[in-house]
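Form P-L/3: holo structure prediction, ligand WQD.
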Amino acid sequence: MKVLVTGGLGYIGSHTCVALLEAGHTVVIVDNLSNSKIDTLNKVMQITKKNIPFYKVDVTDVLAVNSIFSKHDLDAVIHFAGFKAVGESVEKPIEYYHNNVVSTLIIAEACRKYNVHRFVFSSSATVYGDNKVPFVETMDLLPTTNPYGETKAINERILIDIAKANPAISLSILRYFNPAGAHKSGLIGESPVGIPNNIMPYISQVANGKLEKLRVFGNDYNTVDGTGVRDYIHVIDLAAGHVAALENLNEGIHIYNLGTGQGVSVLELVKAFEDANNIKIPIEIVERRPGDLASCYADVSKAKQELGWEAKYDIVAMCHDSWNFEKNRF
Ligand code: WQD
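OUTPUT (holo model):
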């Protein structure tokens, strides 16, 4: 299939483009480079040995988006493009609602105009809010603690309503847990602009001396060791999940958790990183981060049953591959 990948030079988008190309699909990438680098395109082409049409376009630009759809006979869209920093979304709600929701509407309108009926949407476990773990796809969504999470929930509802109105549309909503790790080549990985918000790139930068120590946000949660528990999933597994969702996409509306089903605490993650890479990570226990949940991990049975997909890599592989990417980055 010929797939338009919005945000295709981002962390998850770039790994998914590699997986799509290696599965025999062709991709067209659109990305405004607001949180990615053009060099990632070269790296994806280097890994896959394929030429890839790329458009430096903001997906809120209606004319530019329609021009891309008019040039390519697309079979599907995987929509990653969007702002994704939780903390930043609290400070900049207008930008987050405008960018993340308007872009989804523009892509959906272009799909209708150009008869593209397969749509895979990049959602997030954040939409579950403070539900009881493990999170299951059939749960009612609860309010999240931030505009970023709300834009994901709103986009899910918009796309579901659009799919309900047009039975020809096949929609797959993928709720990621905590993506981590990097491509085995070390050529692509998570390279956030500025100081990382997410823990794995933060630990990797502590490991290479760019950052002094890891501040552990609270150790008084009701968890195995008091620190936050998350379901870390290797980005390669996540990319494979997108290919599985696309290739199994039939009419109707489908929602899948993409996680491992395993919860890992902050202290367990630090130890796994130290053991995997033989590196000491200095830590300091500090106050909880506002908005954090104690525990967040997935029930992953639906994706396994319906897509035949499950995560293959464990936390040790994620720690090894994150470090392998970080130390090769410069
Ligand atoms: C993980 C754990 C922190 C940093 C976010 C988004 C989610 C998704 C993934 C986009 C928590 C602790 C973290 C640090 C720490 N993003 N931590 N020190 O918040 O679970 O999820 O990223 O889709 O939508 O919400 O990820 O990596 O920030 O935190 O102790 O310096 O690590 O408290 O327990 P989070 P995270």
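COMMENT: Residues 93-113 form the longest helix (21 residues).
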